[in-house]
Design brief:
It is built from four helices and 13 strands. The protein is an alpha+beta fold. Strands 1, 2, 3, 4, 5, 6 and 13 form a seven-stranded antiparallel beta sheet that branches. GO terms for molecular function: actin filament binding. Belongs to the FRG1 family. Its main location: nucleus. Keywords: Nucleus.
């Protein structure tokens, strides 16, 4: 028998890189290694659950395990409002009911686009259809999607629990919740003080954005990313203003500004007085 190595019959293309096989130190494959391998094999558009708040980005599907049918947060572009839509509305008696975690969006109106400011734990939820409206919540807990600009009321802080479910906290430190109103209808509110069943949501993101978040986190831990250089939150605070370019400040801030201006004018007057006395002395 020839001692030459047997050539592989696998079809290769010119310029294709050869993947090296890595030997495992142990004979058995651990759960974490198996999970990473499964994630690497997933298609980029596969809908997956986030492991941390930083994973929540890009196209996002938000659903709630309501009874008797799970619901998802949907945007009705015709009426310009948020709708809680049953995921079983088109179900027939013959069709099988998938588990909640197996659900994926069936329409673009069910998908929200999550953006975040670098260096900030908060996110913005924008509609995936229409002109791009942001989900907001006012101090009374009223939730809407009718604003084209982002401000404090459009900021949400996602909280990921050990079981994988997510709660959304607004700028008033209240939580987004599914609330039953008159007539048995369900609506979104943003005035819950505690997290219960109504405040917990299942959130699904696309696999490629989760991988992107993990790659960024690894670079940050390895010191390859300068977080301070890309701190858009600090930049926005210094150079941007909410509301048609007008600065929105508190009453205390206004007093400080007036005091500073007054002290500045007094200092300028004192310097002018000293300069005049010095020039009179040498004349």
């Amino acid at each position: 028998m020839s001692s030459d190595k047997v050539r592989s019959t696998k079809l290769k293309f010119k310029g294709e890189k050869t993947k090296k096989k890595r030997k495992h130190e142990d004979g058995e494959e651990g759960p974490s290694r198996r999970r990473r391998r499964e994630e690497d094999d997933e298609a980029p558009e596969t809908w997956v659950l986030p492991e941390s708040a930083n994973d929540i980005r890009g196209p996002t599907f938000i659903l709630h395990p309501s009874d008797p049918s799970p619901i998802c947060i949907t945007y009705d572009s015709t009426r310009g409002r948020i709708v809680l839509q049953s995921l079983d509305k088109d179900k027939t008696e013959e069709s099988e009911t998938p588990a909640v975690l197996e659900r994926t969006p069936s329409d673009v109106s069910q998908v929200w686009v999550v953006t975040r400011v670098a260096g900030s734990p908060t996110i913005n939820l924008r509609t995936g259809v229409g002109e791009g409206k942001f989900i907001s919540c006012d101090k009374h807990g009223l939730v809407a999607a009718d604003r084209e600009a982002r401000g404090p009321q459009e900021e949400w802080t996602p909280v990921v629990f050990p079981d994988g479910m997510v709660a959304f906290q607004n700028v008033y430190e209240k939580y987004l919740s599914v609330d039953e109103v008159a007539g048995g209808q369900l609506s979104l509110r943003g005035d819950s003080d505690e997290v219960g069943f109504g405040e917990r949501f299942w959130v699904k993101i696309q696999s490629k954005y989760k991988k992107e978040a993990h790659a960024e986190e690894k670079k940050r831990k390895d010191g390859l990313v300068d977080v301070s250089a890309a701190d858009e939150a600090g930049t926005n605070k210094l150079f941007q203003a909410w509301g048609a370019g007008k600065s929105v400040v508190s009453a205390d801030d206004k007093k400080e500004l007036k005091r500073a201006k007054k002290e500045g004018r007094l200092a300028e007057a004192l310097l002018d007085r000293r300069a005049k006395l010095k020039s009179d002395r040498f004349c």
